[in-house]
């Protein structure tokens, strides 16, 4: 008898093995033990002629149990189980619904046949955890679908649909979800007596790569973006290469060795931390299933600029009607045209069908009348970032919009409580801080005011899921989580340059740390003249001095860098001279600043601010800060986010570094450093 959570039953001469391990049928020790016993039971029972392997609940096996990684191994290990499945003398048919991911797909690859339900997704996302498929996936998948498809799935980590899986030879049949079990049993009965197709024995799909090994370099060149300077994507390529170059058994050994190496490394630890951090971010203390979110059937947006338009697209794409308000017809038309243009681009690039784009646009109701927002369930304001402007608008919205509807501000740093106080419904007011471009960036800071009601918060969280955002809850404060931590970094960057570091050295140190760009590249991109006024400029800051010299950033080809026609920047001698003159005027003597100092001065104060954010309760937990910074500001995923990174290098090191810099160490950081503690689990 198989052990729970695995059960078996007989349907004539077919053994049906069922896994029931909520929530996602992860392949933990109990599941592996049960499966091994069930497969062996099928092999030993003379009355069983074929086997169906299925799962109940939300999904087919969603992978190895990630919580077991880093723990002492419990037998049977997944690779052993997979070998026993493939080696079964009786055909095994995997019946896949939901998501067959990672080790889950590897189990399916070891089965002799795969039937997928309509809507199922199949993938090997291990690379996103800083790993590679470690139960034969890198060896079997290329043998089934060919090297190029396998590389795309393994190095990219994105799942394919059941339909696509069928096209590339990954599944044998796609059936309606309701008919899956019956279809799998019927299929199993059909193939009784046929020779057993084992992926490990198939050579024809990898034959081409054996003849043309340059396929790996071509893939690397075409998909440089996927490599991200991380170790796992390269290891994935090396493992697939082993499938082509080595006999199957040796390829498995190579895969195993690479997997173990990645598993023990810091990058995978960081990425696994991030996986759980993202899931933890959705959990709010005091908010359980008894708090019912409000229904959101129409969203109103005030402001059709870049931000408002981007925000609108999130809802339109999710099938939620939007009323978009602007003050003047020309601005409204421009906003609508931009939204239409973005959808057209999505269609051209194949990201969206023409029908879906048309359906989204049909849900848009542009208007000049604020009164048209009356029937909205949620109104989001994306107007000029000024407290007086926002409070006046909220007072008006409060009069117009139906009682009970939620009023949200997209402010990136203003006080939500002050905005809420302008209304007669502070319990229905909160911040929804989208990041630019709002239709693309996945992060959403959900800012709760002192009075925000639990149902309102629950509604924002549920809605963010519906529109595919990763929501992180913050309490109101200047800059919330993300921008509040950006500020000390910006200040440190400026100070470093005044002391003698070159802007390009500061940028280089951050990009070497694998930020997509440094603060001066970012400043040039955003425009140095943001908020600058020639009439009042007195050359008091370096930025003013740059603007006065006509250096406005990328927009006029001259900022801290000089830009060519392709917007490639090179360090600007003129910018260097402006900095030197600025410093001389202040009487400061410049000195050489080394890379290690630059990194510490930029990043330690951020961690310190993060500690204050946690101890003040602005963020619920340190890992939420990591989610904000990885998603919204390009903090390199391979280090897990600022707080996990600080844990990795040691909080005593960070505290000592801050003291050297003359920065007051946050009490939480000081305490944890003294205790040998950590910010994250
Ligand atoms: N191991 C352990 N726990 C897991 C898990 C896994 N593989 N996958 C999901 N969970 C947990 C989550 O942490 C979460 O727990 P919580 O409720 O306590 O927070 C719960 O299951 C539900 O997960 P989600 O909130 O993510 O549920 P969704 O419905 O939004 O998504 C999913 C479902 C698409 C399956 C998503 O959970 C997912 O992508 N999971 C990870 C898949 C993955 O990476 N698999 C590969 C694992 S590594 C591997 O297999 C190595 C092998 O090659 C040897």
From TrEMBL:
The keyword Lyase appears for this protein: yes
Biological process terms in GO annotation: fatty acid beta-oxidation
Pathway assigned in UniProt: Lipid metabolism; fatty acid beta-oxidation
Chief location of this protein within or outside the cell: other
UniProt-listed InterPro entries: 3-OHacyl-CoA_DH_NAD-bd, 3HC_DH_C, 6-PGluconate_DH-like_C_sf, ClpP/crotonase-like_dom_sf, Enoyl-CoA_hyd/isom_CS, Enoyl-CoA_hydra/iso, NAD(P)-bd_dom_sf
Catalytic activity: a (3S)-3-hydroxyacyl-CoA + NAD(+) = a 3-oxoacyl-CoA + NADH + H(+)
Protein name: 3-hydroxyacyl-CoA dehydrogenase
Organism classification: Bacteria, Pseudomonadati, Pseudomonadota, Alphaproteobacteria, Sphingomonadales
